Amino acid sequence: MTYEKSFKIEAVKLSDEIGIKKAAEQLGIPYYTLADWRHRQNVMGEDRAYVGSGHKRAKADPKEQRIYELEKENAELRRTNEILQDALGFFAANRKK
Question: Which of 7, 42, 51, 96 is the most exposed place for a label (fewest CB within 10 A)?
Answer without folding.
Answer: 96
